[in-house]
Amino acid sequence: MYIRLTQRPEADELLGRSGLALLVGMLLDQQIPMEWAFQGPYTISERLGHDLDAREIAAMDPEAFAAILSAKPAVHRYPGSMAGRIRQLAAHLVDHYDGDAERVWTDAGSGAELLRRLTGLPGFGKQKAQIFLALLGKQLGVQPPGWREAAGAYGEEGAFRSVADVVDAGSLAKVRATKQEAKKAAKK
User: Fold this and answer.
1) Which of 9, 87, 101, 175 lies at a CB distance of 3.0 to 4.6 Å from 20, suitable for a disulfide?
2) Residues 6/42, Cβ–Cβ less than 8 Å
3) Total structural domains within the chain
4) Residues 93 and 140 both lie in one domain
5) Dihedral sign of CA atoms 182, 38, 129, 162 in order
6) DSSP 87-109
7) pLDDT, tens digit, 9 for 90 and up, residues 33-83
8) What is the pLDDT of residues 5-41, one digit of tens each?
9) Are residue 62 and residue 143 in the same domain, yes or no?
10) What is the DSSP-derived secondary structure letter of residue 54?
């Protein structure tokens, strides 16, 4: 399935074919606009000259990798700290999934197990893991038994709560509106 999170075809194409790129985009999705976060893997791959590889990233010199993320325009608002987080994620994937990001979800037997695996990833708390699980289920057809329940409210059909619900510019606008309403309600 074709992912449309960044609204940039070349960046979305990478997200659709690379589990590692999709995980890195989700990891970057904090304190910056969603499209910028999910464009990050494409920018990193362009600067590396090839698709992302967990083994390569885990083995890279930390300062050299941070420099890749820090080059203008920076991949994230906090490129140095995010470079460290991406390297931690890559190392975890190498240690636990033989460097294959998609193994996190391809052989999960249930939604609960998939959620456990996702929350076990460096940088993935419960909410981020639930959003990613919903993204996998709604857009990539990764639907082990109980996936919607494990994803919580993010797994609801017809919801416009998160990146899991973005399939075009219109749905992106709906997700933004939902988030703005939630922020307003939280301030009251």
Assistant:
1) 101
2) yes
3) 2
4) no
5) positive
6) HHHHHHHHHHHTT-TTHHHHT--
7) 999 999 999 999 999 999 999 999 999 999 999 999 999 999 999 999 999
8) 998 999 999 999 999 999 999 999 999 999 999 999 9
9) no
10) H
The rounded distance, in Å, linking the Cα atoms of 128 and 162 is 10
Same domain, 92 and 167: no
Tokens 């790129």 found at: 21
Judge whether 161 and 153 are in contact, CB under 8 Å.
yes
Angle value at C-alpha 50, between 46 and 55, nearest 5 degrees: 120
Q: Which two tokens stand for residue 188?
A: 């009251």
Residue 67 Rama label (left phi>0; alpha psi -120 to 50; beta):
alpha
Distance, in Å, from the CA atom of 55 to the CA atom of 87, rounded to the nearest integer, reads 9
Tokens 């939604």 sit at which residue?
Answer: 111
Task: Output the CA torsion 115→118→120→126 (10° steps).
Answer: -70
CATH number for the domain harbouring residue 24 = 1.10.340
Is residue 148 in a domain?
yes
Would you list the DSSP string of 28-81? Answer: H-SSS-HHHHHHHHHHHHHHHTS---HHHHHHS-HHHHHHHHHSSSPSSSSHHH
Which tokens hold the place of 183? 């922020």
**pTM of this prediction?**
0.95
Q: Residue 138 corresponds to which tokens in the numbers above?
A: 């709604």
59 backbone dihedrals φ, ψ, rounded to 5° = -90, -10
